[in-house]
């Protein structure tokens, strides 16, 4: 019956990744030949299992790619001037050098923000690998182009930690950074909110209170 199952992947991809065709893969997973080792089948590490797992990830990525194209075609974004002097000055004043991964991701973000389409990006990495610094570069690009930035953290403790970090890194750039959380007094929250509203704050750091 496997010959009646249509193949969904182009032959080029099958050849490049040395994948069996879908029909035989399904048949061997459910009705394996007697020559297949039972332990290997139970562990799900045969080439036929690999093909089915590949399909799951491939189709997920394909769906996300279609979704991203749909967003890019339907929504207009801001084409930022992404190579301003402020970002370069900020990076030069750092007391440490950037890693290769940080430089690569920063360039990707600059390219994204230079296009007139919304950027939808997830930066993933271990604790202490420099994700905050990468995010600050993106915020600086927006600020240099006359916009305000928002840096939101899930807890007040994290928000306060990020606020102190940003204040230290932005201290020589002449930027006004404010903290907004529910832990502030009502009068202080109102005052900070007013500063943000009238544009006095370049970067607002806080929790969901920012929303």
Task: Put the structure in a nutshell.
The protein is mostly helical. The protein is about 55% helix and about 5% strand.
| Strand-pairing-aware structural class | mainly alpha
Name the beta content range: 5-15%
**Could you state the order of secondary-structure elements as H and E?**
HHHHHHHEHEHE
| Count, helices | 9
- Computed over alpha carbons, the radius of gyration is 25 Å
Helix fraction by DSSP (H/I, runs of at least 4): 40-55%
Extended strand count: 3
**Shape summary:** elongated
Give the spatial strand order of the biggest sheet: 1-3-2
Overall mean pLDDT: 87
Describe the main β-sheet briefly.
3 strands, parallel
Query: Distance between termini?
Result: 56 Å
